[in-house]
Amino acid sequence: MSAVPHEVVFKHLARYLGPHTARTAIRTFADRALKRTPEQISLQDAPALLLALKPMMRTLIGADECEAVLRDIGRELGL
């Protein structure tokens, strides 16, 4: 079974932001950046979602940690 992009992103973000804020962030940025719901995000859409989340993540968890989290998400998604 292949990874579901929004679930992978949620798993990683929830460790830092908590489950509610992680869900809200994914929903908000999926809509803003891709005009989709999280469930509609495909593997091909995942890089655009991560790019959209990056400024918020840098602000909340710092640049170095942000880059590490994005790298881990990308690795898990096979990007």
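^ that was protein a. below is b, sequence first then the tokens
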Amino acid sequence: MELEKQANIVGAIHDRLDQYVGQRLSVRANMGRSKIVESEGVLVQVHPQLFIMEVDRKRGRKTRQSYQYVDVLTGTVELSQNGESLFQPLIDELENSDDKEAVK
């Protein structure tokens, strides 16, 4: 995938997440070595390179976790709301456009 195209997609992810600030989201993060962390929390802030979630922990405690938009692009981090993926249609569209370019 071209660098310019990746930058545009990361920008689109940022813009879309900006609409969800203050809303509850589910996060599924692949931390490597077969470790997958699933949590739920509120999207607190979006910054140019990353976004911050306030995640619920045991006994009513909360922690803040930050993720990069590139992790969403690569599928390392998946975000959903009410069981529906926020970015799966975008990822599917990317895969289809890459297949079309490979055929050319």
